[in-house]
Amino acid sequence: MRIPINRREFLRGSLAGAAVTVGLPYLDIFLNANGTALASGAPLPRRFGTWFFGCGMNPERWAPTREGTDFELPPELAPIAPVREHLSVLSGFSVLLAGEANQVHYTGIVGTLTGEAPARMDAADLPTFDVLIADQIGTATRFRSLEMTATGRPEHSYSRRNATSLNPSEPSPLALYNRVFGPGFADPNSADFTPDPRVLLRRSALSVVADDRRRMEAQVGAADRARLDQYFTSLRQLERQLELSLTKPPPLEACRVPDAPPELADSLEVEQVVESHWLMSQVLAMALACDQTRVFNMVFSDAASSLHTAGSSDTHHTLTHEEPNDPELGYQPRATAFVMRTMEAWTEFVQALAAVPEGDGTLLDNCLVMCHSESSDANTHSVSGLPVILAGRAGGRVKPGVHVRGVGESTARVALTMQQVMGLPVASFGVRQNATSRPVSEVLA
């Protein structure tokens, strides 16, 4: 009788009297006929991420004029040409204001990620929607989400559960590498697996305090119970991560432990940031391929972009306000150079994900990444017509290659679409004038 094999099986033998086991990668026999799911029917994991850049673009040089699949690439989208087939461009979507002041370099981020136009700086208390997605798809991995910034500043993060609970970013490629592939990493393709006894102790410690937790919650008021619930939510995630650390992960064909990146000098010089970003992209791609996380947030430049060129003290942000328009070109050439470099870096990020084979496609095919900024025209701090680009197919749920114009419509429509694609059972998103129940159906497969 022929005994079927499965993806958790090991090759067994002996060498010099010692037992030897060798793990198996994702073979075709483990996948369905199309290579799009496991043979058992379980899909390959879907991942979600954001990619943020500060100080926007020049709308008339960035937004295509034609909608649908036959759209042109204006000058500031020209760098994405090599990955055009993987992308959709969303233009004209805005954070809608109804009496609220535009909190510069803040309203555009908060409105896009939470669906709320904040009344004042740091006033919004809603979670960013990446956190909601991580709550749905990030509980089966070692990290619920990974945040990183190419600027070297851990405070450059826009992912949060509320106004006071920011998810800080890893500030360097080496720090990201050490967090993912340092102590605690279990290679899914290694034949050997030994649980760390320190993990057993930490897990036991969390279990021991369960009774005390219930006793404390019974004695405090509603406000303190809410604070405790927030605290214990993070502890539950830690406990889940500890449980995962005690179980040998299944083999993953695409997983390759990368070499450690070099330690870079701390700098906001744009070419240094580009290098840091590229190294981080490589580490992140393998973190996703090794199923260490399924949700991530990459910051290329901060909201009030602090990037500068070598030998200059003028930052991108300063130039958007102080550099005069060139009378012949009609725009600010030095400030616009940062936009072009940003779009080049975004293209390199997409290429990093597309370069990793997975199933019958690539890692990017099983991702959905939202590239966005906090303003359109940074000179006026406009939150109308914010730039948004989507990358990936989300495991077949999204079709790339289209331009959708959303003139006068809220960016909450984009956020709602992302959540529904990732499997969240939500019918609406946003509050007040930004509330919507309409996904961007043009990008849905």
List the helices and strands and how they pair.
Elements: E1 10-15, E2 18-23, E3 47-53, H1 59-62, E4 87-94, H2 107-114, H3 129-137, E5 146-149, H4 173-181, H5 197-208, H6 210-217, H7 222-245, H8 270-289, E6 295-299, H9 316-322, H10 333-354, E7 357-358, E8 361-362, E9 367-373, E10 388-391, E11 403-410, H11 412-421
Parallel strand pairs: 3-6, 3-9, 4-11, 5-6
Antiparallel strand pairs: 1-2, 4-10, 7-8, 9-10
Helix pairs in contact: 4-8, 5-7, 8-10, 9-10
Provide a descriptive summary of the structure in words.
The chain is α/β, with parallel strands linked by helices and 445 residues long. The protein has 2 domains: 35-185 and 250-443, 3-Layer(aba) Sandwich (Alkaline Phosphatase, subunit A), CATH 3.40.720.10; 196-245. The two termini are 43 Å apart. It has a 7-stranded mixed beta sheet, with helices on both faces. The protein has 11 helices and 11 strands. It is 30% helix and 13% strand. The longest helix is centred in the middle third of the chain and has 24 residues, at 222-245.
In the CATH hierarchy, the architecture of the largest domain is: 3-Layer(aba) Sandwich
Q: CATH topology of the largest domain, which one?
A: Alkaline Phosphatase, subunit A
Radius of gyration computed on alpha carbons: 23 Å
N-to-C CA distance: 43 Å
